[in-house]
Amino acid sequence: MFKIASRMALLGTESAFEVLARAGELARQGRSIINLGIGQPDFPTPPHIVEAGRKVLSDGHHGYTPANGILPLREAVAADIAARRGVEVSPEDIVVVPGGKVTMAFAMLMFGEEGAEILCPDPGFPIYQSVVRFSGAKPVPYPLHEANGFSFSADEVLEKITPRTRLLIVNSPANPTGGVVPKAELDRLVAGLERHPQVAVLSDEIYARMVYGNQAHASLLPYEAIRDRLILLDGWSKTYAMTGWRLGWGLWPKGLAELATRLAINVHSCVNAPTQFAGLAALTGPQDSVDRMMRAFEERRRLIVGALNRLPGFRCVDPGGAFYAFPNIAATGFSARELQDRLLEEAGVATIAGTSFGEMGEGYIRFSYANSSENISEAIRRIGDWLGSGVRPQRPIMMQTA
Ligand code: PLP
Fold first, then answer.
1. How far is the C-alpha of 114 from the C-alpha of 133, rounded, in Å?
2. pTM score of the predicted model
3. How far is the CA of 244 from the centre of ligand 1 (A)?
């Protein structure tokens, strides 16, 4: 019998993909399922971007590219960073990878090992804790608070730093909460980090363009005090509706881009050429489709938050960014997992239990509003009818609802 490495038991998963599979199965059995589970724009990739990818294939670009990405693409990323985050960076420090997740995994593999601690938001993107564990390091969760619009408190984050802390992960706007960390809180965090020069920071800004109302996205890049230890993660998946193309970028501190490139050479060699040229067209071409998509998300956000707040036992703060609503469902008496399962099986609505994003997600479920207004309204109507039909929790949970 073969024996696999024990570290494989440490890998977690992303429930969104499991819920997606179950929703597909139910749909194949003829059930009507509305999927508010998976986090990807429901819009197609804008046509000029698709065309750029198609043309590259017809033009015969079928071979490897440089492992860190074609130079014009890294130059376009640097120009975009200068325009949107106001900081001049070198294309040499940028590594283009197959999706935002890859920058994340590379950062964990670079900093994580037995004995090391990595600070992760909770509730947060589940892959953070999963890959931290896989690296041998210990994930140390820090809480995000509903009362603060799911921002963190800088003091609470800083308190968790120990001599073993190697890396701090920050995600704003955030998955699963839609929370946006106010600039004043980032100021406090950076001021505190000056006392801990051994702690590197991974800022996951994949939802940077998706900020609503009068909020502005505050990047960690402009802070000089941590520039030499900041890894910035962003990409094309969400902004340009390109989740299936697999394209992301990381901006690395001096010297680390070479290590990220070495990891790339060992793992995937390079991102395929058509995707990179499509990404170039996305950054350098018209941005009106991004603006249109954002207007649609803004409208749906208003619709879903209002509707969720009218459901009995639900309470939903205004998410400042991304395309997720994260209502508190504690007053329904259902645990997050039971509500997720029964909404899918009995009401035909796919959502994700808050506990898929960490222990502090109990009492919440995530709705992705990357779906049409009609589907969102119908989903909430189904949930309202289901809740009103006398359903009772099979596994009641005692939670504070305050
Ligand atoms: N970071 C966060 C917070 C996300 O929510 C996601 C995707 O859901 C990613 C990174 C990964 O994006 P990609 O599909 O580009 O790998």
1. 9
2. 0.96
3. 12
